[in-house]
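Researcher: Sequence of EVE domain-containing protein follows. Predict its structure.
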Amino acid sequence: MAAHPAYWIGVAAAAHVAIGRADGIVMFAHGDHSAAKRVQPGDWFAYYSPTQTLGGKDSVRRFTGIGVIEPGEPEQMLMAPGMTGWRRRARYLDAQDADIYLLLPQLSFVTNPSHWGMYFRKSLFGIGREDFLRIATAMGVGDPIN
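Model: Prediction complete. Tokens:
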């Protein structure tokens, strides 16, 4: 059993993060059930957005959302006609976007800066508390954990 709280990075288009923020939800890996089950109430997350839209060429390369998973189980929802996905309730913090390039030298999980993009190929991955706090500080929320 993982120690909690855990700290996560989700990778999603900025437009999708904006919808999640407005609706108070998170979805990871295009609504994959196992991804929704991995994160638990009390866990912290930050979203990294490579682009503005899914599959778009409109580069963003910023952290665009940050918050905490709310109590409750994953919920299934209709995403599009004939397509469902799993989400969790979340409380987003009032934050500013943070440029990935300014953070790369500080993130301990990026051990090869010349290939930093490889670390963000997964749609959900765990990080350490210190890396999460570096991202939170860059997003203007300081230390939201304490």
